[in-house]
Amino acid sequence: MTAEEIVEQLKPLGTDTYKKVLRNHGVPEPFFGVKIEDLKKIHKRVKKDYQLALDLYDTGIYDAMYLAGLIADDLRMTKKDLRHWLDKANCAMLSEYTVAWVAAESQHGHDLALEWIESGKENVAAAGWATLSGLVSIKDDAELDLAALKRLLLRVQKTLPKEPNRVRYAMNGFVIAVGTYVQPLTDLALQTAQKIGEVSVDVGDTSCKVPYAPEYIEKVQRKGAVGKKRKTAKC
């Protein structure tokens, strides 16, 4: 199956209603408005396909680019591939989710995340923090550099208020991720979240709300689910 054939399959699956939702989330044309549940049906048929994922992403069509992230053979993705994907990501839905998910599951997630968070570009830095969130959610604590994560939490505490809009959102997500997935650092992440307080982010014409990190972490604690890792960073 080729990227062109899949694009033809995607066209009739789009709806005006979902297009409006995506548009409100900052997704630019071209896109069809295909729901994620329908993209996952194609993913189920295709499974993993490295080259097809690259070809789909390069169409520049949002629905195909999102699908590319689902079918990507993460372990075959190179740093060049991932940097290229981030360069072409034209909305937060791609840079903070699709690209970050694939990067987190690749062999280069840690290196690229630390590279990206140093960027002066909002979408790149946000992708870096989102990648870090993905990493801590799927990696065993023994595989994580806990000392480095402590330093990153301190950095978030000191710098978050001055960061650009989407970087603040991704940093807040990072604190939540560390607090819920990295048990040895839960207390520190909770303290960090309490010091940061409520994070203000412009989410545009959407019903999205910025999670209040202390409340989120405490809720996971009450459920006894702290430290329970995810099987995949992707949704």
Protein described:
The chain has 235 residues and is an all-alpha fold. It has 2 domains: 1-72, no CATH class; 92-235, no CATH class. The chain contains 13 helices and no strands. Helix 8 runs antiparallel to helix 9 (122-138) and helix 10 (146-159) packs parallel to helix 12.
What are the defining features of this structure?
single chain, 13 helices, mainly alpha, globular, 235 residues
Distance between the termini: 23 Å
Number of strands: 0
Structural class: mainly alpha
Number of helices: 13
Write a concise synopsis of the structure shown.
The protein is mostly helical and 235 residues long. The protein is built from 13 helices and no strands.
Note the topology.
Elements: H1 3-10, H2 16-24, H3 36-46, H4 50-57, H5 62-71, H6 79-88, H7 92-105, H8 109-116, H9 122-138, H10 146-159, H11 165-181, H12 186-196, H13 213-223
Helix pairs in contact: 1-4, 3-5, 4-5, 5-7, 7-8, 7-9, 8-9, 9-11, 10-12, 11-12, 11-13, 12-13
